[in-house]
Amino acid sequence: MLPVTESTLVVRTDFTDVDAWTRVCRAVAEPPGGDLVRAAFTFVDDPAFSGVSPARALKLVPRTPSHPMVALADSVTMSSPDLPLLVVDLIDDPGGTFRSAPEVLWHVANNLFVAPGFFHDYVRSVDPDGVYRCGGREGQIKVLSAIASLKGVPFDADDYDFSTSPTARRR
After folding, report:
1. Cβ(71)–Cβ(99) under 8 Å?
2. Which of 53, 88, 91, 163 has a CA between 20 and 30 Å from the CA of residue 6?
3. pTM of the complete model
4. Which residue intervals define the domain DUF6924 in the entry (predicted)?
């Protein structure tokens, strides 16, 4: 069984590249929106979960508290320069999957926690390469701007660097 936690689980299922796992954890834990965005994640780095498939993950995630998703750092994640995590739906379409850039996993986790039925919207919103990136630069600016507005704090898109990745990086 995976750990009982109220935060979203990010489970390492491929143990071939420790540096890639470190980069995944950093990208998930330090999203480009800084203090504007928060999501709680529990990182599971246990060889007992090596090779866990989406179907197996469904059986391993504790049912209490209820989790809408689990993210798997599998062989595709570890071998790709963009480190796309495999997001597994636990509620709306159990076992359904899509890939997400680790930098925007906070967006996926927060929205699925609020409205689990949106999983299919993420599946339809992946880029042509099959990875969800929150709409690239324009989409991320829109999301971060809306969050800043809700929090009543200033937002300046010039504070983010989009030059090296389709995913925003805080300058």
Report:
1. no
2. 53
3. 0.86
4. 8-133
List the chain domain ranges. Answer: 8-134
CATH top class, domain 8-134: alpha beta
What are the pLDDT digits (tens) for 85-120?
999 999 888 999 999 999 889 889 988 887 766 898
132, amino acid identity: Y
